Amino acid sequence: MTVEEFEAFYVQSVGRLTGQLYVMLGDLQEAEDVVQEAFVKAWSRRRRLDRDSGPEAWIRTVAWRLAVSRWRFRRRTADAWSRRATPSHAAGPGPEHVVLVDALRTLPAQQRRTVTLHYLCDLTVEQIAGETGLSASTVKTHLGRGRAALADRLKDTEQEAGSR
């Protein structure tokens, strides 16, 4: 089909195909959407449409399949949402957690990462060395300096809280 033939085919058949899909689907907006999408797909294969038997049948079939795909997607999405447990209300972090996070932020990035991997992720010195690419002695140095810095920072915070 040439561009002009395709345009003429579109003008002649879009209303009829939309009406047919509307009857099949029961939803005019959905019918309009899938018919338009089917025509977009047909545009890229317009040269072969005239050789196929019935370009209108091809459009109708593609539009129907698009509608079925959308139904399946919506059903899977609805199923996933219904399986999702409603989150229970979680309490916010306590003041001690906020103080600890603030103290951790004062550490240099590598010390903070090392301390987090060791104390929060419960990794050994060797595991941290393997994950970070640092030597075991460097990991131990970061842990020692990080603990000392945190102890000083947390002690300062305790003293500030006590003087209030």
UniProtKB/TrEMBL annotation:
Residues 14-77 form the RNA polymerase sigma-70 region domain. Residues 100-150 form the RNA polymerase sigma factor 70 region 4 type domain. It holds the Pfam family Sigma70_r2. The keyword DNA-binding applies. The keyword Ligase does not apply. InterPro entries: RNA_pol_sigma-70-like, RNA_pol_sigma-70_dom, RNA_pol_sigma-E_actinobac, RNA_pol_sigma70_ECF_CS, RNA_pol_sigma70_r2, RNA_pol_sigma70_r4_t2, RNA_pol_sigma_r2, RNA_pol_sigma_r3/r4-like. CDD domains: Sigma70_r4. Keywords: DNA-binding, Sigma factor, Transcription, Transcription regulation. Belongs to the sigma-70 factor family. ECF subfamily. NCBIfam families: SigE-fam_strep, sigma70-ECF. This is RNA polymerase sigma factor. It comes from Streptomyces cinereoruber. The lineage of its organism: Bacteria, Bacillati, Actinomycetota, Actinomycetes, Kitasatosporales.
